[in-house]
């Protein structure tokens, strides 16, 4: 009962001890309390009760009872870090027990071997246990043994064998009332899904397991460790670090298992390294190494040493000693049969290359490269990275490009299994090294055209396909409705000057729930017309032809190599390359410009105008360099890297008075250019609550567009707005915008019943062909992954929107009104968004407030 209903089992055991139990019954009761404390509470109390259980078993003169308790005590001692004592107790239990009892003790010893990382011994003991448990028809213990064997198989990378055992175990659990073990089976299936490369399924199953554990009131430290691993693979390293650190704190708070603490510290170290925090990774890994060494857990200690070496290398501590240490770890992992062995060999080769030790590097990289042919996607990615480094060391640009192409293809296939746009974007970080290697090689061997192709191969890949539409999940829809209501109530209370801590806590809880459900969405690789075009097929000739069709148009793509901006100027049938300034300096200057625009949004800041204009000139020199003199006079498309998403491009002197649009990628601009407007020509005008001007442009626009659908006051509710936006030709939304840097997909536009968030837009079958967002901060993004952007505009572009006008800075509400009216006048005359925005800026008064307002808005896409 201790696993079927832990609370009830504990109460009954304490009740037995409150009476005058026989030695046999006292032994059982103390054992139950010891198991409860071992798995859900204080290890010190667990050992006390289990030793009492052993002593009462001896008084009962029952060898079988004593053997069973010794098995439980041995597991507890191992978890407490007293490995030798634990294995001694388990050995005595195997000797004392017979038949059925011995099989149960063998299972516990197999479990302890798994905890210690001795997988061969674990498989042998669990094999012996399963044979007897099946003979005596012990369903519960057979299911436990099958689950354990599957878990050991997973540790060794044998996914097929693991799935067979998990399936057999789950069939047995369905015939029992063991709720804790059933939850453990769901958790195990999640681990198997992850090992098979199915991240959404893993997250869904882990969440289901957590719900089951919560009903039993049991801690979830093993689940926390496994979820951290999945979050890291999904590119959510910061979340994994926070989760691991929180679990360590909770475990310390109850005096829990030392073994679990060491594993959590290892998870935290890995997460910190992936989150670009090498110092934290070094500290956590050092603690984990000490604990694992004291627990005599060689498998785990070796993995912790690998993370320590990775973190020290990331911190710039490359040395011959580090190469030797990494090589030793790689050899040990290979001897243990650990799937992480290729990763260690890749690290060894990378450190050796950094020192110029090409012969040593080649030896280790060749070993790592063997993993490129088989295994889960991220293991194959490791192999292709090693192959690319080998080719680079050999001076073969062709070999580098081939390895990078194959590796990025593997990553593309992996990303396409992810339905959530956030996971797709973050997963790109795992291919950043391959992308950089390919760009360097293409610059050396192929010139500007090839550099453009590889820049496109890796740019804004998350936008290359629409995200999977959220399923018709009633729980998700209820959560989003509740979120809107709570957010609206919180906003109303804040406007009244009232504190809203309870509402804010509930809002955060609902955000976590919504995000969790969207991360469960599985991707697809086909849209009814075949496989998605996710990269590697960019046609430079097609781009140049389209630019010629645009009236001597130009496209400027900014690539970044080794920290310096490379300007790829496309037009007039060719691609030219110019070298500009340092990216870091451009980022700093862009922040200065943003600060200047914020000041100019308020009257009385006229004196700041020359300062902002001077910053614009410096920014142009850093971003365009000598290319600024070769832009021609036709329309211009700018394709910046993700880290420059906040640049107000219209402020740059060479771009100020021309037709200018921005796109996340050249491929994205081509798709937008070739998007066909929907039939019907429907216009939608939306006016949200609480605007300083009351959305003054909307009534005038309603008169201009005659039959436009106008949604305002109570009609401007989220579901009604979404219904009208779906498939519209033109939408204009005047509403308060809020950008959420901590959760970009919760960035929102305020409607009558609460926020319209990015997740809502992803429910559209087709977003409006053109959309104008006349409020602040709608063109702000979060830069994630390798070079990806998450935000409102980037959610619209893959969903059928060909052009967006949005704002990247706070603006003066009153100055926005004439800009918007002039913009729509140009659209009514048949101009594109970029042409109409250029003319609208020119029509504004010349004071600082109006000029800053015009600069803050950009046209995205090609409509």
From TrEMBL:
SUPFAM superfamilies reported for this sequence: TPR-like (SSF48452)
InterPro entries (alphabetical): CHAT_dom (IPR024983), TPR-like_helical_dom_sf (IPR011990), TPR_rpt (IPR019734)
Domain CHAT residues, every copy: 614-856
Gene3D superfamilies documented for this protein: Tetratricopeptide repeat domain (1.25.40.10)
Identification of the protein by name: CHAT domain-containing protein
Protein source organism: Streptomyces incanus
């Amino acid at each position: 009962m201790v696993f079927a209903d832990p609370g009830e089992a504990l109460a009954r055991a304490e009740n037995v001890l409150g009476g005058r139990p026989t030695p046999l019954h006292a032994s059982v009761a103390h054992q139950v309390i010891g198991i409860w404390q071992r798995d859900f509470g204080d290890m010190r109390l667990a050992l006390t009760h289990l030793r009492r259980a052993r002593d009462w078993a001896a008084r009962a003169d029952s060898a079988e009872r004593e053997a069973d308790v010794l098995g439980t005590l041995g597991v507890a001692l191992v978890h407490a870090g007293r490995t030798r004592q634990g294995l001694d107790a388990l050995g005595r239990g195997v000797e004392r027990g017979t038949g059925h009892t011995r099989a149960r003790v063998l299972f516990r010893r197999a479990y302890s071997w798994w905890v210690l990382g001795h997988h061969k011994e674990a498989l042998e003991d669990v094999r012996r246990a399963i044979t007897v448990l099946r003979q005596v028809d012990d369903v519960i213990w057979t299911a436990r043994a099958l689950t354990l064997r599957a878990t050991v198989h997973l540790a060794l990378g044998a996914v097929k064998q693991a799935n067979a055992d998990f399936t057999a175990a789950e069939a047995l659990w369905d015939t029992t009332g063991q709720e804790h073990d059933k939850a453990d089976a769901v958790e195990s299936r999640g681990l198997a899904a992850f090992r098979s490369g199915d991240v959404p399924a893993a997250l869904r199953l882990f969440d289901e397991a957590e719900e089951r554990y919560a009903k039993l009131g049991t801690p979830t430290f093993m689940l926390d460790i496994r979820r951290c691993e999945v979050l890291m693979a999904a590119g959510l390293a910061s979340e994994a670090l926070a989760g691991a650190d929180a679990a360590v704190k909770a475990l310390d708070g109850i005096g829990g298992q030392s073994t679990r603490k060491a594993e959590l510290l290892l998870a935290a170290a890995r997460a910190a390294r992936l989150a670009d925090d090498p110092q934290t990774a070094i500290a956590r890994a050092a603690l984990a190494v000490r604990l694992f060494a004291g627990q005599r857990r060689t498998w785990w200690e070796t993995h912790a040493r690998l993370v320590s070496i990775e973190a020290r290398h990331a911190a710039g501590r490359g040395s011959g000693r580090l190469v030797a240490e990494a090589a030793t770890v790689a050899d040990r992992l290979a001897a243990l049969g650990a799937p992480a062995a290729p990763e260690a060999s890749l690290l060894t080769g990378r450190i050796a290359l950094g020192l110029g030790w090409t012969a040593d590097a080649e030896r280790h990289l060749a070993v790592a490269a063997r993993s490129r042919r088989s295994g889960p996607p991220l293991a194959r990615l490791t192999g292709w990275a090693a192959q690319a480094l080998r080719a680079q060391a050999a001076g073969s640009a062709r070999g580098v490009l081939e390895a990078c192409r194959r590796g990025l293809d593997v990553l593309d296939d992996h990303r396409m299994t992810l339905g959530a746009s956030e996971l797709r974007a973050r997963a790109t970080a795992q291919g950043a090294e391959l992308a950089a290697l390919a760009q360097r090689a293409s610059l050396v061997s192929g010139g500007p055209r090839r550099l453009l192709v590889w820049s496109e191969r890796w740019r804004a890949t998350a936008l290359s396909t629409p995200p999977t539409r959220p399923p018709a999940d009633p729980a998700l829809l209820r959560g989003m409705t509740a979120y809107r209501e709570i957010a609206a109530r919180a906003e109303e209370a804040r406007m009244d000057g009232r504190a809203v801590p309870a509402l804010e806590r509930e809002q955060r809880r609902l955000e976590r729930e919504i995000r969790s459900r969207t991360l469960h969405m599985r991707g697809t690789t086909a849209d009814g017309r075949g496989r998605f075009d996710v990269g590697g097929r960019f046609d430079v000739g097609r781009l140049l032809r389209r630019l010629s069709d645009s009236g001597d148009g130009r496209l400027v793509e900014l690539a970044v190599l080794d920290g310096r901006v490379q300007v790829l100027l496309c037009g007039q049938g060719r691609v030219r390359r110019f070298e500009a300034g340092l990216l870091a300096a451009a980022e700093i200057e862009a922040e200065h410009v943003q600060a200047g625009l914020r000041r100019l949004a308020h009257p009385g800041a006229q004196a700041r105008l020359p300062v902002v204009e001077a910053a614009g000139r410096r920014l142009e020199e850093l971003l365009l360099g000598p290319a600024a003199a070769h832009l021609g006079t036709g329309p211009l498309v700018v394709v910046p890297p993700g880290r420059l998403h906040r640049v107000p491009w219209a402020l740059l002197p060479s771009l100020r008075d021309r037709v200018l649009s921005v796109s996340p990628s050249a491929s994205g601009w081509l798709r937008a250019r070739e998007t066909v407007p929907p039939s019907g020509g429907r216009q939608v005008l939306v006016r949200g609550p609480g605007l300083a001007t009351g959305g003054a442009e909307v009534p005038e626009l309603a008169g201009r567009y005659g039959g436009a659908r106008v949604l305002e006051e109570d009609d401007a509710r989220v579901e009604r707005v979404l219904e009208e936006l779906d498939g519209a030709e033109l939408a204009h939304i005047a509403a308060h915008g809020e950008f959420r840097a901590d959760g970009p997909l919760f960035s929102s536009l305020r409607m009558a019943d609460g926020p319209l968030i990015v997740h809502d837009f992803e429910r559209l079958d087709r977003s409006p062909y053109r959309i104008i967002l006349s409020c602040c901060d709608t063109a702000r993004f979060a830069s994630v992954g390798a070079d990806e952007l998450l935000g409102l505009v980037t959610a619209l572009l893959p969903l059928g929107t060909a052009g967006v006008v949005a704002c990247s800075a706070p603006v003066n509400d009153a100055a926005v009104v004439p800009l918007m009216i002039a913009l729509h006048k140009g659209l009514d005359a048949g101009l594109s968004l970029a042409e109409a925005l250029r003319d609208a800026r020119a029509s504004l008064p010349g004071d600082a407030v109006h000029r800053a307002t015009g600069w803050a808005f950009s046209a995205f896409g090609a409509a």
